[in-house]
Amino acid sequence: MKPTLTAREHYDRLAEMGNGLNDPPALLEFMARWDGPPFWNALGDTTKKDVLEVGIGCGRIAGQLLKLGCSSLTGLDISPKSIAAARSQLNEFSNLNLLVADVTEFNRPASFDVVYSVLTFMHVQDKRKALWNLVDSLRQGGQIILSIDKASDMFDFGDWLVPLHPWTPEQYAEELSSLGCKVNEFIPLIDNWSGPTGQKTETYGEQIATVVKATR
Questions:
Q1: What's the CA gap between 148 and 91, in Å, rounded?
Q2: pLDDT at 57
């Protein structure tokens, strides 16, 4: 019988295995199914802005934003080993603040212009508290961008299982609206990945995630 791990244990193990560190181009393209051009278009120009990433992992997305010239980037993750890997990967940047923290316990009132998260909120159980914290941490006119996977209640990683807590995009939109945000039209993320030898995923051509964007 497969063991069941918490999200923290899962990502600690991935960091130990080197996932997210020096990934080959094919794997980076595979992961970009959840943060490719539609996600970056939603993110917009972050130059000279204070940015918060929830679930920074090893820093794959954060590194790109830092190179584009954001004013500062704060990265949260519940996995200490992921944060250690991100610190190693991104040590050239002095405008980076990395924290081992749970988004349901993190609040920095009116501190950020942009908050984003990719493939993280499916792990968050108390989404209402997390979203309240993030909206409160935005400055007026700030934006929150979430890439929401089509998740089930359980993620089978192969050697172990990870419980998930999925919401629909509509649930996120309703909660963000209740917090006073203006929610944009949803952006579908379609799986168009093809591997180096032409192999395709089982979900090729299907919508696998949704970008939810809102403005405070």
A1: 29
A2: 94
Question: 207, 204, 193: which is closest to 30 by C-alpha?
Answer: 193
The pLDDT of residue 25 is 80
Q: How far is CA 158 from the centre of its chain?
A: 22
- DSSP for 22-63 reads S--HHHHHHHTTTTSHHHHHHH---TT-EEEEES-TTSHHHH
Side-chain-facing half-sphere of 20: CA atoms under 13 Å: 25
Domains and CATH numbers, the chain: 7-20+27-215 (3.40.50.150)
User: Mutual orientation of helices 169-178 and 127-137 as an angle, nearest 10°?
Assistant: 50
